[in-house]
Amino acid sequence: MTVRLHRSPSLAATDYAYAASIPTSARLVHLAGACPLGPDGTTVAPGDYVAQAHAVVANLRQTLADLGADLTDVVSHRVLVASATQADLVQVWDVVRTAFGEHDVPSTLMGVTVLGYDDQLVEVEAVAVLPERPAADGIFDDPRLAAVYDPLDPDRSDLDHYVAIADELGARSVLDVGCGTGTFATMLAARGHEVVGVDPAGASLDVARTKPHADRVRWLHGDAPAARRELPDLRVDLVTMTANVAQVFVTDEAWEENLHAIAALLNPGGHLVFETRVPERRAWQSWNAEDSFHAADVPGIGRVESWHELLDVRGETVTFRSHTRFPDGVTIPAESTLRFRSREQVTASLTECGFTVRDVRDAPDRLGKEHVVIAQRAG
């Protein structure tokens, strides 16, 4: 969740937050007052405060949806009621407060003399933060690169470990976040799991849809917060993030927003499983042309070569450039940045977002170099 709510222990307890904060990079949108208007532009339910409040909330939801947002993206709101009677204000407040649920943002409830439309009794003004569609890593979103991703990395025996974990946990439904070209998602679908694959790289999803058993997977362009918005009824037993997916969330805000969305998408007691590299092993030291060079003969394309170039190591973040050279002489570069969090940082962030870490294992294909984390959402 991008919006963080704050309460003051020094002030009286209320059913709304005293303040809200957002990342400095977020885009704010100031919404026009949501009014109780029907499709024909006339005021609905004249004289009925509660019915108009419901209409206002519905119109507010629609405006946010048109922007790719929802009520959880609201930073603050002001509720206006055309009445001098406190009981009327309370009726309206109860409707609005119920609609927002646990996202009890800072709010002002006001009685006013009159509102702008005939028979209008209620209006809600709001400020929201627009969720940004995640930027896909160039190596996955360029069609030429996506087409050769699997041939350049054909051995995916590392995914057998994740299949075994899914069986161990008894998961029947799985959301694969950062599913890429769909190798793991289609493996699960072939075994009878209900699978949703989500990824911000449209080109990778295009490749995924061509694979055997792809018709058994529900594919979504986006990330976990997008899945939460666009599939509000989705609940799964297991969420997975294989390969480097968990490390692409460079900022704490992005990582925690991802975890909050995953928690909301899991059934009570459901699990999150992901891998993350051990920082002390300094994997980036081998991200150079000599150590990382790889070539493969790709059917229908020819010999394709790839290698990495280390660009920057700054604290816990590492930026590198992948180069892919095609038979026609074209070389396509793609930059990536990964965050190398310590085991303690990973555990603390999971706990903060409502998970309990059940196990941390060695990745079988990178013993001592990579952790596989199994966390459980509270029941």
Biggest sheet overview: 7 strands, mixed
The total tally of domains equals 2
Terminal Cα span: 20 Å
**Strand content range:** 25-35%
- The CATH class label of the largest domain is Alpha Beta
In CATH, the topology of the largest domain is named Rossmann fold
Structural Rg: 24 Å
Tally of helical segments: 11
Return the CATH architecture of the largest domain.
Answer: 3-Layer(aba) Sandwich
SSE series: EEEHEHEEHHHEHEHEHEHEHEEEEHEE
Shape: elongated
- The CATH homology group name of the largest domain: Vaccinia Virus protein VP39
**What's the β-strand tally?**
17
Spatial order of strands in the largest sheet: 9-8-7-10-11-17-16
Mean pLDDT: 92
Helix content bin = 25-40%
Poorly predicted runs of 5 or more residues: none
Structure class: alpha/beta
Can you summarize this structure?
GO terms for molecular function: transferase activity. 28% of the residues lie in helices and 32% in strands.
Describe this structure in words.
- The model has no long low-confidence stretch (mean pLDDT 92).
- This protein has 2 domains: 127 residues, RutC-like (60s Ribosomal Protein L30, Chain: A); 240 residues, Rossmann fold (3-Layer(aba) Sandwich).
- The strands form 4 sheets. Strands 9-8-7-10-11-17-16 form a 7-stranded mixed β-sheet, sandwiched between helices. Strands 3-6-4-5 form a 4-stranded mixed β-sheet.
- Strand 14 and strand 15 form a beta hairpin.
- 28% of the residues lie in helices and 32% in strands.
- The protein is built from 11 helices and 17 strands.
- Helix 1 runs parallel beside helix 2 and helix 8 crosses helix 9.
- The chain is of the alpha/beta class.
- The protein starts with a strand and ends with a strand.
